[in-house]
Amino acid sequence: MNLWRVAWRTRSFKIEAALTLLCIFLLTAVCLTVFPIVQHRQGVVLSDPLLPLFRPINMDWPTFVLLYSAVFLGLFHALRDPRRFFAILQVFLVVQYIRVVTICITPLDPPLTKIPLRDPFLYSCMNNVFTKDLFFSGHTATCFLLFLLAREKWLRCYLGFTTLGMVGCVLATHGHYTVDVLAAFPFTYLSYRLVTKVRKRFCWPQEAPVIAQATTALLTRWRELRARSSRSSRAA
Q1: Taking a C-beta distance cutoff of 8 angstroms, is the pair 152, 77 a contact?
Q2: Domain spans of the chain?
């Protein structure tokens, strides 16, 4: 948490945090306005080369176990570093704003055999289930962006697994066309690259050395404590 204290002392981080939170509220308002309109418009049913090869399967719980575990682990480990935490939020925002645009300009109806995903936690709070927010897959994009921003090797392996698992889940339900799932990867990667470049140029340019010093000091202290604990256990 010392990194957060250091970050909150800087004016640029406060501005970044405020703008990020503002964009989250704006995204919520945009989605609540746009998605009901999209849901009631006439769309096109695509001819998919993959979906006719198998019957749809209900994958509610596997889908949301993968999604929520990925989000929880990704954000939990990012909480130690405010730069990483807000980078995740910002990539997510860019992905979702792009997704709103692509959904608006691609009027699609879902596959005729689709089994709608019903979130076990959110479904009871929603009056409607949106089925036409198709291009591109938001579930796949979310898992993939967490994978791109993970640092720990074991976490990257798990998030890579959840990303591939999410691809399988959304296709198994016929919830998305194959092109929806495949398109999530380039759109998410481009969003990640864009946010990374913008952050390097505008976010905390003057305070970065101070934060780096604080990070180094914390890591050094942690290693000292581990070494002391190891010596104590050997002595015992």
Answers
A1: yes
A2: 57-118+133-206
